[in-house]
Predict the structure.
Amino acid sequence: MKDSNYLKANNARSLWHPMTAPSDSLKNPPVIVTGAHGVRIRDLDGHEVVDAVGGLWNVNLGYSCQPVKDAIARQLDQLPYYSTFRGTTNDQVIELAEELRDFFAPDGLTRAFFTSGGSDSVETALRLARQYHKIRGEAGRTKFLSLKKGYHGTHMGGASVNGNANFRTQYEPLLPGCFHIPAPYTYRNPFNEADPARLAQMCLQALEDEIAFQGTGTIAAFIMEPILGAGGVIPPHESFMPGVAALCRKNGILLIADEVITAFGRTGAWTGSRLWGVQPDFACTAKAITNAYFPFGATMIAEGVAEMFERDESGKAAIGHGYTYSGHPVGAAAALACLAETKRQKVNENAAARGRELHEGLLALQAKHAAIGDVRGGHGLMCAMELVADRATKRPADKAVPGKVQQVAYEAGAMVRVSGPNIILSPPLVLTSADVQIIIAALDKGFASL
Ligand SMILES: Cc1ncc(COP(=O)(O)O)c(C=O)c1O
């Protein structure tokens, strides 16, 4: 490694960082992370903190998961790469597809299409959804519906169904035929409705209305996160996703569950769809599938959709889609080891228990600090706090405020994430109760500094 003076002098000089302005990275140099173990990361100056971001919602098993590291090293020696395009495959990806078929059986998802990450998995689902309708002879079903506040990655298709202007405006025009309905976000919504069950019904009515307005026969799919993540952790009422699934089914619209964050235990259930008792037509996965140690993803496909493709003799089911790294053998080996560890450690159970503690801790902070307008969570290890300048009017906090809390919390022992007015927490699922308390204490200091 180059010495620390060199790294600090060149920090952000010759690279652009995602999700921030280049000028911001130069003015506020990013933390240079150089090491990690367990649920902790260490920076260039040797300062060590609990990583309450969990990498980026993906290091579910922490930084010291030896079986995944060993599997990657072994596979690099055995077969570091080969393509899975027509005519060739590899042993690891065959085994992984069978494992995933077992894992997702309760969700009714039985086939996998492999990708290099979450945005790829979303793009794959959107494209295959259109193709499904063309195979069935309903070529006019091309539109996509989604939720405002939803996040579906940054490819052109994903950005088009995204429900946050930050990821859209500078890249418009986006894909035509994408329409958004209000999210079941109790703190702020166009209906001024704070009751989660009533709000869920209103959002479902808005969806029904939009379907009727667009025309059922023009819509290919509805895409949603079972719990909205990057948009500020918005858990819908339990009636919402089943209600969406029922409307989709009634109208011949495919349901795509974007499980890039929620799959593999984060919500306390093995998948977000399972948490709500829904069987989607597609599920997009990535992130924790390899514990973040290798960029990899899988779009899971329901049996009924798969049969439509597999039965077709017309040629319309030929998949004109795929990535050079689809089914990468090193990624597949990492995913196999990661799935085994994920199940062996039953991380979903720990996520549920530690998630309750974290949520309670945040509610206690809200009782103490006026800047915390809303606390969201209660389903595993995904929580958020929305910061306000004034609780009565819900006026958002000044831009600098979340950053100040983050900085002081970091100095006090926890890395947290800022996204707009929200502080978002998505720690590894192997967190202990003591780690939860470190995060709460660090945030307490952050808010006390305001
Ligand atoms: C729900 C959801 N979908 C898609 C993505 C995009 O994944 P990636 O950044 O791996 O492309 C993310 C990333 O955070 C996500 O949270």
Summary: The longest strand covers residues 383-390. Residues 117-119, 122, 151-153, 225, 229-230, 258, 260-261, 286 surround pyridoxal-5'-phosphate (CB under 6 Å).
